[in-house]
Amino acid sequence: MVSQARDIAILRYGSAEPLPERRLLKAGPLTAVLEEGGLRYIRYGEQEVVRGIYAAVRDQNWGTIKPVFREFHVVTDRIHEFEVRFVAEHRQGEIDFVWEGAITGSEDGTIRFTFDGEARSNFLRNRIGFCILHPSDLAGCKVEVETEDGTGTRTISGVFPERISPHQPFLGMTAIRHELTPKLVAELQFSGDLFEMEDQRNWTDASYKTYCTPLSIPYPVEVASGERVQQAVTLRLVGEREDEVGGNLVEDSKETSAEISDVQAIRVELRDHVVGQVPGIGLGMTPGRPLAMSELEALRPLALTFLRAVIRLADPGWERELANTAAAASALGAGVELEVIVPGEWEGRSEVGSEGQEQSQGQEQSQGQGEIDSRGQGHSHVQGQRLLEVLVQAIVQAGTVVDTVFVFPEAGFVSQHELSAELMKLRDSAGLSFRVGGGTRAYFTELNRAELPLAPMDAAMYTINPQVHAFDIASLAETVSAQADTVRSARSIVPDVPLSIGPITFKPRLNPNTTSEEGRRRSEDRANHTDARQWSLFGAAWTLGSLRSLSEAGAERVCYLETAGPLGVMRDGGEEKYPLYHVLAAAAKLQGAEVLDCRVADRLSFDALAVRANDGAVMLLAANYTNETIRVRVESAVTLQPSELLALDERAVRPLAPVVYPAPAVQDGGALELELPPFAVVVVR
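User: That's the sequence. What structure does it adopt?
Assistant: Structure tokens below.
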């Protein structure tokens, strides 16, 4: 048994450092969680009003400069009021910026957050200041927005978008209001800058983000030493509160500054209603080498549907990469998906930048090169065509194992009509039947914003990772629900095309929005893609939540991580499996099975996937996203007859593997109760 506190922390969430301290604050009928200089989960009773308010410093490549907090003071002398003051310092490279933060909460339900900062060096920035996160559960909710557009202030009506909005729903914002009850409105007011909103579900953040500094203003901007930035955000309640008419939204408590610990059982309602099916599961092929026999044996229990390889036709070793992948897939009885990157100039190339503003890398390159001989472009195009011909012949030699080829231009991230059509023509001439896929090799954002070659596309892909904007455990856990939103929105873009989502990784494998060559190289360096949380219990819990969301939303295929190594599901050689390996092993025989409607009261803390296997038995896979032991009560309209419980938690011995326990007792009425240690994953079957 793992006994040392340090080892337990590493096993739980990949680090020996303690997780950030949380404090529960109360402002009249509102509660909020204070964490590292920001507010999270502002609630009116059980209703989430604001997901988060925080300040960020973003560099010229949209990198977030993590702050160090000092002089932190919290005053909670009165039960329903609070005051927080601190100093935050952001230092990285040439950037040196400091700001004083003050947060106050009043008994009338008003929360005010001020930012007073100063640059202590000269540097380039894309943004400095407040971001406000609105929970994605507000999708479809009506809003009123006060805006300024240079001609004055006006109020407009709208809604939080249901389908993921490719661009900003609201611009030039000074305030936004939405209804909490028929008689009560939550209002956010902004000062110090104009604000606008983006739909962060584009990057699988489960929120809409209202942020300072409109993107219509050119960036990056040079900040001079001594320059000041001052902003404020105020949340207030307008109307009649339930606690003023006999309600009891916030019980009096003297423990307002205590760490948060949920002792109530989380309620899960399992319904006899099919909402999806488990997709075919694949892994990325670890590049640069064949899989060892021991690794192949370790992968067999996963019953993989496919392996996916990245093939760069400009690299001299790509044919060996394809051969290694085909050999491994044949040994595992799996198919092969290829993500092929083709050099050369292809018509219609375009890209879209992440923070709401279009960027064309191709245009930037052409401007930097000056005039280019059209014969050079033609030569490059012919070279690309010849490489496609060689690729098709290599696929012929690989046999029928290759079933899908996603093809992209080297100079872009979105598939292009001419390139896809050329590959289809070569495929048909060779008498092959693989699907020619398109979409984007970057985020869903690029799929959502691009004009795609819809006609020559037999399948679509985009990648997922939870760390585009935030990097803490809680924020990563929040992203799993938004993964489903991307699939549902993708259906409106490519309605009749199978979706193969992935690779699904813990860190970005590239940055489609970097403004420098150094930033591009750094983002694509595999050494920067590792995240110890991938090897932890949290990694297993996150993978389970991801699989649940993508199953319910209707993805046909999902591609996770890689086969072996630091970016894989097990260590090199296959002897030691990471915890998430066991989640995929539990799901192996469930591919194609029916997913049942499983309603979890608090998906920020806990998640569950309910599947009816081919023999009719119902299996429940559940995960704890927190560093606390939690209790869960499952109330089921489906007959549950569990024979055992498999637990993956810190009680297991190394190498970590699920431990079998007696099945939980089914109570009268079909309910059962579970207790999950921190970051544990259990399978009830």
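Residues 374-398 form the longest helix (25 residues).
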